């Protein structure tokens, strides 16, 4: 924060500045593209941009189209990783997925065969997240999905969080690449159980519908190392949050994670519906939506507004 701002609280400053910063990022929406490989996602408004920031006392600042609902898509992978870690422990999870960035696209299967052992490089690429879906505890795939949804609801403090069934069906009908990866993982012994059931768990958690406020509340729990600061209740062991946040820094924005670490410097995870979940550790949870994507699959205006915020508020961890 600059000297000129020092007598004003940070939230007041954000309230005043966010709409201005958002307006200048919004222009970029027209330069990106809304995802269409899942046909239902193409209906999202290209020009939308919204943000919600919440602090440990529950005070929030919101701007733009923050009321828009959208599906979590890959953002959900952070939380299924956390659930799989809580269900199985680190040894079991990291027997099935690695800890390294790929430098490839999120849906690439290139390195699955290229590098031994043939496990997905990390839990945030599609192949890794599908392997993680197979590790969620429960007697049936319905029970596994239900446990996942309940976990997300608890973190978001929102009992009405649910699936966007149109997006779920649209993905299930168009997921040939993910299906081929899942069969490959099964053949490699990485994925246990029924491939279609595991994919159903994956498609469901990707299609959980949220607003920026839901993402911000989920991020707030991570920003406070697994304890919900609004209740003081520990929801996730600190060590697992540390693992998840590290993956967010190294792989959360796919093959743009290095650039994002330099320009923004915060743990973050994006999804192809245009959401970004990020946080200022020990301070804020942040949710962003901007369905128009850059060529790497991240929200074009969402990344831009986070760059502005980080620079103006001096939020980079590095
Ligand atoms: O599996 C898929 O392709 C989607 N359900 C999720 C991909 C995604 O969000 C990647 N994001 N940038």
Report on this model:
This is Glutaminase. Belongs to the glutaminase family. Keywords: Acetylation, Hydrolase. Helices cover 46% and strands 13% of the residues. It is globular, with a radius of gyration of 18 Å. The chain contains 13 helices and twelve strands. It has 318 residues and is of the alpha+beta class. The protein has helices spanning 10-26, 76-88, 90-96, 110-114, 126-133, 141-156, 165-173, 176-187, 195-206, 212-223, 238-251, 257-263, 300-313, and strands at residues 33-34, 50-55, 60-64, 70-71, 162-163, 208-210, 227-228, 233-234, 268-270, 275-280, 284-289, 292-293. It folds into two domains: 3-71 and 210-313, Beta-lactamase; 74-206, Probable Glutaminase Ybgj, Chain: A, domain 2. Residues 73-74, 106-107, 126, 171, 178, 206, 254, 270-272, 297 line the site of 6-diazenyl-5-OXO-L-norleucine.
Question: What's the short story on this structure?
Answer:
Homotetramer. By secondary structure, the chain is an alpha+beta fold.
């Amino acid at each position: 924060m600059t000297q000129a701002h020092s007598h004003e609280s940070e939230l007041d400053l954000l309230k005043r500045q966010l709409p201005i910063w958002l307006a200048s990022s919004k222009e970029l929406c027209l330069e990106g593209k809304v995802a269409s490989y899942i046909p239902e996602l193409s209906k999202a408004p290209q020009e939308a941009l919204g943000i919600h920031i919440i602090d440990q006392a529950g005070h929030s600042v919101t701007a733009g189209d923050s009321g828009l609902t959208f599906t979590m898509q890959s953002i959900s992978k952070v939380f299924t990783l956390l659930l799989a870690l809580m269900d199985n422990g680190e040894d079991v999870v990291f027997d099935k997925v690695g800890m390294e960035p790929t430098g490839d696209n999120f849906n690439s299967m290139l390195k699955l065969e290229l590098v031994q052992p043939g496990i997905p490089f990390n839990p945030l690429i599609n192949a890794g997240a599908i392997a993680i879906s197979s590790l969620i505890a429960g007697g049936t795939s319905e029970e596994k999905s239900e446990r996942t949804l309940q976990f997300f609801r608890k973190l978001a403090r929102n009992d009405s969080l649910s699936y966007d069934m149109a997006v779920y069906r649209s993905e299930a009908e168009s997921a040939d690449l993910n299906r081929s990866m899942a069969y490959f993982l099964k053949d490699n012994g990485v994925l246990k159980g029924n491939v279609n059931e595991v994919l159903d768990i994956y498609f469901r958690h990707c299609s959980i519908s949220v607003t920026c406020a839901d993402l911000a509340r989920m991020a707030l729990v991570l920003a406070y190392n697994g304890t919900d600061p609004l209740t003081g209740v520990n929801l996730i062991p600190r060590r697992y949050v540390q693992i998840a946040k590290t993956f967010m820094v190294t792989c959360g924005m796919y093959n743009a994670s290095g650039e994002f670490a330099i320009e923004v410097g915060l743990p973050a995870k994006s999804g192809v519906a245009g959401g970004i979940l990020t946080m200022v550790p020990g301070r804020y949870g942040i949710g962003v939506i901007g369905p128009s994507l850059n060529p790497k699959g991240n929200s074009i205006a969402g990344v831009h507004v986070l760059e502005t915020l980080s620079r103006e508020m001096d939020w980079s961890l590095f």
